[in-house]
Amino acid sequence: QVQLVESGGGLVQVGGSLRLSCADSGRTISSYAMYWFRQAPGKERAFVAAISWSGDTTYYADSVKGRFTISRDNAKNTVNLQMNTLKPEDTAVYYCAADSLLWVRPIASRMNYWGKGTQVTVSS
User: Fold this and answer.
1) How does the average pLDDT of the chain come out, rounded?
2) Measured between alpha carbons, how far is 113 from 123 in angstroms, rounded to an integer?
């Protein structure tokens, strides 16, 4: 079974950068499409970025395009989210997710596996 563990969250100032990682401590994730979602207090879990199993196709939410980059290393069973030019509205718990399909418009209810999340706080 896929067991996802996120890391790399923390407190950063506006305009700063963070790099989140998601590792699979169980079965390999190389055959899964991988996703990042985020959830701010009082809001629904929202799509951030997605990457195909091969890494050659990526999708981003409009709010993070040009600032965030998703990547994966299947040899290491890891997926990363490089976040640059961070804004206060990026503050949320960030979750890694896996699904057998790469959805053009991902929604949380379609994901097969989830990590427990990592907190990202952007201070002004």
Assistant:
1) 95
2) 30
